[in-house]
Structures are given as C-alpha cells and as structure tokens.
Amino acid sequence: MHAEFDAKDNDELASLNVEVAVAGRMMTRRVMGKASFVTLQDVGGRIQLYVARDDLPEGVYNEQFKKWDLGDIIAARGKLFKTQTGELSIHCTELRLLTKALRPLPDKFHGLQDQEVRYRQRYLDLIANEESRHTFRIRSQILATMRQFMVARGFMEVETPMMQVIPGGASARPFITHHNALDLDMYLAHRAGTVSETSGGWRF
C-alpha cells in the first residue's frame, strides 16, 4: 500500500477514490474527542487510521472503539487520504474487533528493553521491536538463499532426528529424557549432521 500510494498527494488520492480493507494490531491510539488516530501494524508494516465518530455506525465509536486496548487486533475499511503532515492514512467507515489482547503491550516509546524478557518471550519482542522483526526477516532471507544455492547444485535437504538412543558430543554432558511409549532413555543430538553422514554417497 505504501509502495503504491505514498508518492501521491491528497488530491490524487481523492480523485482515485481508493477504498481499502486492512487488519492488524493496534499499537498506538490518540483520542481527541470525537475523532482518533490509530497506528495499525501487521507483518507488512504500519498504517495510520483516522477514526471519526460520525463516520462510523451508531455506537461503534463510544461503546466499542474507546473500550479497546493497545494490542487488540482489529479490522478496518475506508478510503485513503493524506494528513496535513503528508502521512498516508485510512479514513475509516467500518471498524471491528477481531481478537482481544489479554495483556497490555510494553511502553510504546521505549519498546521492550528487558533482555531477559526479550529472549524468554520472543512473541512479545517481535510485537514490540521493529529491530527484532528486521533481524528475523534478514535471517529468513539468508536461509532461503542458502537453500536455493545448495538445491541448484544437486543437494537435498533432509530432517534428522533430534533425539537419539546413543549419546554423542564427545565429552559433553548429554541431555537425557525418557520416551514413555518405547520405555527407553534418549539423548538430545549435539549436531544434526551425524545421522546424515552415515548415508554414504547421498548429497545432504
């Protein structure tokens, strides 16, 4: 949406009369009496919503919208326009709640700073921090490129078991668990390549 319409001014958008439907997580909200601005975020980025009481069905603004919380996932429909500051926005004519957030989001200005929470609650880190989302996107692109490179040269990707009946890892202390159905102890594999190396001439 941004790629297609960011370069157009408000007059061009008005002449095009573009209506869009979006859904995402409500990250910020600025309520100013009978109108509000909302920042909506999805996997593709962010878009601003302009929500006016008189443009929505009766009761939606005061009885529903004002009671929603940051982190809620909502759907919106409306027409594109540019604000006085030049930000691409959606003038909403429809608004509805899709999923309720059970816990509040971290502080919107500082994001999620606690390193322990960031690593133990990755889902929260990805919601709150754009830098973390960017890192995950880059990692995914790197892995995809590596796979394409290997496949083009005749290699085949396979899944190897992560639990084994024989411990490996040289002198490292193995992680042990018990397989109830088979009634035997199993060990966490220290490296995924060990099993594939026993297959001989196959190119894994």
TrEMBL record:
Signal peptide: none annotated. The keyword Metal-binding applies. It comes from Klebsiella pneumoniae. Residues 136-188 form the Aminoacyl-transfer RNA synthetases class-II family profile domain. PANTHER family: LYSINE--TRNA LIGASE, CHLOROPLASTIC_MITOCHONDRIAL (PTHR42918:SF15), LYSYL-TRNA SYNTHETASE (PTHR42918). InterPro entries: Aa-tRNA-synt_II, aa-tRNA-synth_II, aa-tRNA-synth_II/BPL/LPL, Lys-tRNA-ligase_II_N, Lys-tRNA-synth_II_C, NA-bd_OB-fold, NA-bd_OB_tRNA. This is lysine--tRNA ligase. Its EC number is 6.1.1.6. It comes from the Bacteria. PROSITE patterns: AA_TRNA_LIGASE_II (PS50862). Belongs to the class-II aminoacyl-tRNA synthetase family. Keywords: Aminoacyl-tRNA synthetase, ATP-binding, Cytoplasm, Ligase, Metal-binding, Nucleotide-binding, Protein biosynthesis. It catalyses: tRNA(Lys) + L-lysine + ATP = L-lysyl-tRNA(Lys) + AMP + diphosphate.
